[in-house]
Amino acid sequence: xxxxxxxxxxxxxxxxxxxxxxxxxxxxxxxxxxxxxxxxxxxxxxxxxxxxxxxxxxxxxxxxxxxxxxxxxxxxx
Length: 77
Fold this sequence. Notes:
Blueprint: H1 5-28, H2 44-76
């Protein structure tokens, strides 16, 4: 049994179309956003920035508290 060239071309076209259809189906079934593996939606930079801002706020609160105490002592003397 020998295959003619037109039948081989038709078979090649059929396989190509089938591959394209399968690829499109695969792409359409992919989720729109990648799933988070770590469970956190924050980047490492955002976490570092949040920690920095928390530390800065604590330092500012300590400074204001100390400044208020100094003003009290200056007013009393």
